[in-house]
Amino acid sequence: MGLKSLSKVLLEERYSTDKEVLLCYGYDASGLDITPVAVVWPHDTTDIVKITRFAYENKYKIIPRGAGTGMTGGSVPAENSILMSLEKMNHILELDVENHNVLVEPGVINGSLQLELEAKGYFYPPDPASLNICSIGGNVAENAGGPRAVKYGVTRDYVMQLEAVLPDGRVINTGVKTAKGVVGYDLTRLLVGSEGTLATISKIRLKILPQPESIVTMLSAFTSIESAAMTVSKIIATGIIPRTIELMDRLTLYAVNRLKQVGFPEDIDSLLLIEVDGNRRAIAKEADVISNICNEFGGKIKVALENQSREFLWDARRSVSPALYKLSPTKLNEDVVVPINKVPALLMGVEKLSEKHDLPIACFGHAGDGNIHVNIMTDKNNRESFEKAEKVVRELFELTLSLGGTISGEHGVGLTKAKYIDMELDMINIDLMKGIKKLFDPQNILNPGKIFPNDKR
Length: 457
Ligand SMILES: Cc1cc2nc3c(=O)[nH]c(=O)nc-3n(C[C@H](O)[C@H](O)[C@H](O)COP(=O)(O)OP(=O)(O)OC[C@H]3O[C@@H](n4cnc5c(N)ncnc54)[C@H](O)[C@@H]3O)c2cc1C
Known about the structure:
Blueprint: H1 6-9, E1 15-16, H2 19-24, E2 38-40, H3 45-58, E3 61-65, E4 81-85, E5 92-96, E6 101-104, H4 110-118, E7 122-123, H5 136-142, H6 149-152, E8 159-165, E9 171-175, H7 187-191, E10 200-207, E11 209-210, E12 214-222, H8 225-237, E13 244-249, H9 250-260, E14 270-278, H10 280-296, E15 300-304, H11 307-318, H12 320-325, E16 330-337, H13 343-357, E17 361-366, E18 371-378, H14 383-402, H15 421-424, H16 427-440
Helix pairs in contact: 8-10, 8-13, 13-14
The structure holds flavin-adenine dinucleotide (FAD).
Flavin-adenine dinucleotide binds next to strand 3, helix 5 and strand 10.
């Protein structure tokens, strides 16, 4: 059956093969771009089942897509693929305040959920910097983190139950609605972070938390990135767990100043954006300790008391990625993680890589949990520069692994990191993972070519 037969399984307005439409769904934030043969917009689980069966029976591939903000090409189509956009499944289905959880469809935008919950005195901790534009389904598929991960953990820590459609159209329900549950293997945790390669997630039950009584936001400016990094290690070593510790280096500050006219002083080398939350009196003490540690390493502290000034700072932090895109045509955005006491060594190593290969590198991100976004500025149309940038990526990964880290903390493998996974995983692990993929998807229908380096595309 050709694509025209989609009309037998879906309402006309729920799919398109128009070239203009297809072009809009061929890319994500990685900059990679491949046009699908059709785009479908399921409105419910039944639609997903029908589309999946259609693809299964007619040998099309299915690419699930949330909002296309992924950094590693996870939702970029493969050959002969139907792009399944979950954007219309964007409803909050049930808010169970008594039991602290919420049931949502995958297309709900993270920031919209946050607003709904805040109005009821709750919050959902995972807050990727892309929260206003990324979907919860995409967050689950990537196991997204965010600034608050340092204290509250990542998406995986909040997913209680999933409904998902297998590549042959069967629907599974995983997990429990209760605080505990150990019956059988934990398929929920397996699906979280599976990057759309095992099943299409159609419903998600998330744990939520009551809002903290109070938040203190601090900004500390440093004259060297090493001092900023040592400050982070020392804060964590005291036993205080801030809600966030975000780092921005000199190039990042320059880029944000240019885009947003934030007015960060040009003579400083790096900034830490630190927040503590909880009981008002307790966090006042924590803020004092943090302030003293910053001073010890030469950091000049400013405290934001008003909600408005907090939001201004967070808006600046969230604009880092778009701001950096204005500095060079291409940036390779890596998201390595090292143990927290190795953050200074990582940042010093990156400076050396930048000098050695004569390429600007901007570092920013979630320093409090050791997750640094290392952005190598290059131009994909300049072969010499791009080849150098790729060498930097490999050497960065070698450095990260030698420090006991991992090559991706939250962006996943997708297409861009597939060729590097054997630097971190041995063949026993890779073969087991491929076996799991085969068990879920024997015909390799769902999001082929992602994660594993040897799959044919
Ligand atoms: C400016 C910017 C800042 C960012 N900051 C962060 C950050 O702080 N932390 C962080 O973790 N990430 C960050 N990201 C990366 C990105 O936003 C996250 O990976 C996010 O989780 C992707 O969500 P999405 O809805 O855009 O998913 P997409 O990009 O559409 O898809 C991502 C992957 O999920 C799969 N997928 C999507 N929906 C489903 C579904 N329903 N079922 C099965 N598979 C599905 C896709 O196939 C793909 O493999 C940032 C990105 C940008 C552009």
